Amino acid sequence: xxxxxxxxxxxxxxxxxxxxxxxxxxxxxxxxxxxxxxxxxxxxxxxxxxxxxxxxxxxxxxxxxxxxxxxxxxxxxxxxxxxxxxxxxxxxxxxxxxxxxxxxxxxxxxxxxxxxxxxxxxxxxxxxxxxxxxxxxxxxxxxxxxxxxxxxxxxxxxxxxxxxxxxxxxxxxxxxxxxxxxxxxxxxxxxxxxxxxxxxxxxxxxxxxxxxxxxxxxxxxxxxxxxxxxxxxxxxxxxxxxxxxxxxxxxxxxxx
Amino acid sequence: xxxxxxxxxxxxxxxxxxxxxxxxxxxxxxxxxxxxxxxxxxxxxxxxxxxxxxxxxxxxxxxxxxxxxxxxxxxxxxxxxxxxxxxxxxxxxxxxxxxxxxxxxxxxxxxxxxxxxxxxxxxxxxxxxxxxxxxxxxxxxxxxxxxxxxxxxxxxxxxxxxxxxxxxxxxxxxxxxxxxxxxxxxxxxxxxxxxxxxxxxxxxxxxxxxxxxxxxxxxxxxxxxxxxxxxxxxxxxxxxxxxxxxxxxxxxxxxx
Lengths: 256, 256
Ligand SMILES: Nc1ncnc2c1ncn2[C@@H]1O[C@H](COP(=O)(O)OP(=O)(O)OP(=O)(O)O)[C@@H](O)[C@H]1O
Ligand SMILES: Nc1ncnc2c1ncn2[C@@H]1O[C@H](COP(=O)(O)OP(=O)(O)OP(=O)(O)O)[C@@H](O)[C@H]1O
Ligand SMILES: [Mg+2]
Ligand SMILES: [Mg+2]
Description:
2 copies of one chain form a homodimer. Chain A is of the alpha/beta class. Chain A is built from 13 helices and 7 strands. Chain A has a 7-stranded mixed β-sheet, with helices on both faces. At the A-B interface, α2, α5, α8 and α11 of A face α2, α5, α8 and α11 of B.
């Protein structure tokens, strides 16, 4: 039974894409069939896995507006067990194009139904906004991972995000869970980091991942080579952090 | 004659808001009448200057949809010579609400016309997207500052941003200039930072600010106190960096 996880936070630059790529790659290298879906017009997930977004003719845009199937937009990647549905620039206009479509929040959910038997995990990367693309991701997902950079503005934005999740649960997807809050870009030497981290643990309790993803230059370098960090430098701290995150996801999703 | 500068980059977390707040505050402390306009539904600029976005009854949202004047939405701040038009959460829906309005890209430009004689600088903070809010900012602006974090994904996104600027010039605002590209969150010890920085200098040449804004924890701490860094810790590197950016802006805008 596939598990669909959206990676969402309207705050920019908190590590959504880095988490989507590296969590998915970590699940794949432990031999779980995994699909990454890039729902961001910036297409960072796409380029971070070695694809040129301008070349993506069959992308999530065409899937969402219904002109092709999710199957036909799927690409295999350098990583065994890891596939990708890329984004391209046309996605910029998608939110406006689908605004009058009936069930406009459910388009991604429906498109992904054909793929449920092919994967153990589907990971969806979201743009930094709470618009229709993110709402589609939250409607399609079983759960959401919220990456949070341990700094003030990211902490402030959580209220809005949780409110959106509540609304999606009430109107579109009653089963939407919070998989967990993931502390990212953490710098243990900084008092601000630790203050924000304790604030988050106080509020979210056991829903915070035990793994904290530290600032690690390899995670920023890897996408410039079009590789997840586990292919770029498997021994570095960043790779080990995301393998640990994958382990936590697997642990909490073992069907008895 | 007022100078209107938009701070734009669809990449998240590259220091748009930090630049908007601290450039504006630096212009104000050198006694230039300055207005900050928060065009981001996240309202980070608003909270970073000490206001609660949920309390912002007269915000840029009401201004853009035309129900109040820009004048009546203006608040004074803790900083002499610095005013703010705050954002609030309603701005999230604004892009959809204004989509069928005639001249929907020119709403901000028109609203700001009444204020031209009151300020020397108007600084507009944009959300991490190339949607209607950012396009309104680019249409209202004389020039745009592009903050760029010296990492791979931020470098990749520049093409899309420059394309949007070109389209705005052609169709809406022929006078739109690039004030400059500002390197932000720079870590001089990292080879990646230096590689991306040289790539940017190679492409943009003299349009890159001489000042490079280094990573400095004071810049991340200040908004949690609702203050620009020049009020929080005037002597720190971050404050000096942004005072230097303000100097460069003043130098290139001295009317002969
Ligand atoms: N743990 C980390 N250590 C070092 N660099 C990181 C780490 N996580 C992310 N980065 C880098 O920080 C920047 C922001 O990360 P990323 O693009 O993944 O965030 P995002 O939330 O997807 O941004 P956006 O809101 O624009 O989609 C990128 O340059 C990325 O390579
Ligand atoms: N030079 C710096 N040194 C240290 N921290 C910084 C610096 N510039 C920005 N920050 C911090 O980095 C984070 C991202 O910065 P900021 O919110 O200004 O970016 P942004 O581009 O406005 O993000 P968004 O795309 O979400 O609007 C914030 O927590 C901010 O406080
Ligand atoms: Mg991203
Ligand atoms: Mg911002």
